[in-house]
Amino acid sequence: MRMSLAQRVLLTWLFTLLFLIMLVLKLDEKAPWNWFLIFIPVWIFDTILLVMLIVKMAGRCKSGFDPRNGSQNMKKKVWYLIAMLLKLAFCLALCAKLQRFTTMKLAYVFIPLWVLLLGGMLELGYNIFYVRRD
């Protein structure tokens, strides 16, 4: 199953819009929903992305696949998987803090986000300065 660019953009826009509408209703105190319920559109979207990523990574297990051809591509997919898990950890910690399930300091809640941003900056720097150009 392949989605066109327009379908991916529409799906991203739809889930973002739904999340923002639910967030505004919660912040205006119009809806007394749980914070975990507010983040459901984000988690559904992330689950779709994770399943697609895992299916692509599992494609390397097919017979006849030459592992030398996609080693750089696999490193990028592993980074995407780690980034998605860090984002998930941040969202879960944020919801737990906002719902007062934990008394964790806010600085600890943001550690997965900071690691994600640092990793993104390192990958950007690597792609700009160290990638060979033929």
Secondary structure layout:
Blueprint: H1 5-27, H2 35-38, H3 40-58, H4 71-98, H5 106-109, H6 111-129
Any descriptors?
single chain, globular, 134 residues
General description of the model:
By secondary structure, the protein is an all-alpha fold. It is built from 6 helices and no strands. Helix 1 (5-27) packs antiparallel against helix 3 (40-58), helix 3 (40-58) runs antiparallel to helix 4 and helix 4 (71-98) packs antiparallel against helix 6.
| SS-based class | mainly alpha
Mean pLDDT: 88
Give the number of domains.
Answer: 1
Q: What is the total tally of β strands?
A: 0
Major β-sheet annotation: none
What is the terminal separation in angstroms? 33 Å
| Shape label | globular
Helix/strand order: HHHHHH
Strand content: under 5%
Q: Please tally the helical runs, counting DSSP H or I stretches of 4 or more residues.
A: 6
Using the CA coordinates, give the radius of gyration: 18 Å
Weakly predicted, low-confidence segments: none
Helix content: over 70%
Pfam families: Tmemb_185A
Protein name: TMM60 protein
Keywords: Membrane, Transmembrane, Transmembrane helix
InterPro entries: TM_Fragile-X-F-assoc
Could you give a short description of this structure?
The chain has 134 residues and is mainly α.
